[in-house]
Amino acid sequence: MSDNLSLPNIQEADTLLSDLFQEVQKWEGTLAGGKKLGTGAAAIESLLKSQVSFGNPQDRLTLLTEETFKGSGTELIGIYKQQMQTQYDFYYMTLTVNLRPQPGAQFTRLTCQLDFHPKGSNEPIIQNIFPNQQWRTVMNFGVGMDIGLNGNLEWSAGVDSTWLGELTNLLPGELKTNAANKNELKAFMVMPEYKYELSHAEITAVGDGSSTCYWRIQDEEIQKVGTAKFAVVFKVPKGTESINLRGIAWAEPNMKWLTADVRDVFSELSDRFKNLLRRKDEAAIHLARIANEEWSLILPKATTKG
Description:
The chain is of the alpha+beta class. The protein has helices spanning 10-32, 39-49, 66-70, 78-86, 161-170, 255-261, 271-278, and strands at residues 51-54, 62-64, 88-100, 107-117, 125-130, 145-149, 155-159, 179-181, 188-194, 202-206, 212-218, 227-237, 242-253, 289-298. The protein contains seven helices and 14 strands. The two termini are 44 Å apart.
């Protein structure tokens, strides 16, 4: 992949947050003369209790065939027809990442990386991901869209006619024809009513043509995302019965919020935490809430007509 991605360490993040909580609680208790949690300790506790988790990737794992698209009012282009007939089986998968922040916890970045296995001659190849760079503007659209796959194995979006003009204006020139009225969308439906409640989100997405992909969503109030949905179209050599998938997702805390809440005891903290917090946004990944899972996916096969 062209953009290097630094991965967090789950054990390190848990240990750092727990140790920071103990230090802040100790010094805030000294200042307040009691055992009630102070502002800083309460903020860190809210991070410790916040959770990130994955949905089940097998849930919406779907075999894509020529008939899949014909039944949706569209037709595959020649190259994909040929590959499906002679070389590859194509699949569509939706994976959800659930961010469950505790009250008061603030996050600014959510990242998800998927790594398909095996590697080598039987390596899965990612055909397309959603949302990708071209579709990043939909993160801030705020209106429910039906997302589908057209005959070019590209993404299309359907909205109510009252919103169509606005959506079309958001998309780059080459994608304007991929927006349509919901009732006229000719595509295999994959994510009905796709919508994020974010207003200033930025997204980086990388992965087409390899066996690894990732998404990074940045927003000052990313905790409002709740459940993020990511879609992948991938292909495997014909005859492949199963693959392994490794996923890691993490939410990085808002360091402005965190450092402001511990400022009253900052001077009393140990050097390791002073140095960590002075790094501000660079330190966020070391205090992230993280999910790390691996799945063995049984690939669906076409049903034979008896």
